[in-house]
Automatic annotation (TrEMBL):
Keyword terms: Metal-binding, Zinc
Transmembrane segments: none
A GO molecular-function descriptor: DNA-3-methyladenine glycosylase activity
Protein name per its UniProtKB record: DNA-3-methyladenine glycosylase I
Length: 185
């Protein structure tokens, strides 16, 4: 019998599929890592199930999260996004995603991409936690605080330690599958 982390059993089939096939899997693809950071920003204050339901609309609205395309969005594009009922239309979050595309572009120009930058901070190793209960999983750690500060110094916005912790889980830097979860590595 397949067992899943508690959070993956309380929403839609999309949530379950995300848990089983994506969350916690090592991801070093630049576009995909930028997408996950952007989605985590959109999720702040909301629930992940809602973001997953809107994921395809986000991909369409943000040009597939192609960093170089998002980095050059202008005020006209911002207004278009603010009026797109298929996505979360929070202006601060939209502007942060555009800003972060610009920051990721600068990182690339300096010789490293966002994915490589984040993975280097973890010494290219997965941090494996062995939590037995969902209540034990923190919302932030000293490491997520360090990564948040480093991202902020590189010009990224809306990247506090809690959003960064969720982002690190999403791209597999941190393996927080519960100890009983069938998907624990």
């Amino acid at each position: 019998m397949i067992q899943r982390c508690d959070w993956a059993t309380t929403g839609s089939e999309l949530l379950c599929d995300y848990h089983d096939n994506e969350w916690g899997e090592k991801n070093e693809d630049e576009r995909a890592v930028f997408e996950m950071l952007s989605l985590e920003i959109m999720q702040a204050g909301l629930n992940w199930d809602l973001v997953l339901k809107k994921r395809q609309a986000f991909r369409e609205a943000f040009d597939g999260f192609e960093i170089e395309k998002v980095a050059v969005y202008d005020s006209t594009k911002v207004e278009e996004l603010r009026h797109d009922e298929a996505i979360i239309r929070n202006q601060r979050k939209i502007l942060a995603i555009i800003n972060n595309a610009q920051a990721a572009s600068k990182l690339k120009a300096e010789g490293t991409g966002l994915a490589e930058f984040v993975w280097q901070l973890a010494d290219n190793k997965v941090i494996v936690n062995n939590w037995k209960h969902a209540e034990q999983v923190p919302s932030k750690t000293p490491f997520s605080q360090e990564v948040a500060v480093r991202l902020q110094k590189k010009g990224f916005k809306f990247v506090g330690p809690t959003i960064v912790y969720s982002f690190l889980q999403a791209i597999g830097v941190i393996d927080d599958h519960l100890s009983y979860c069938s998907f624990k590595k």
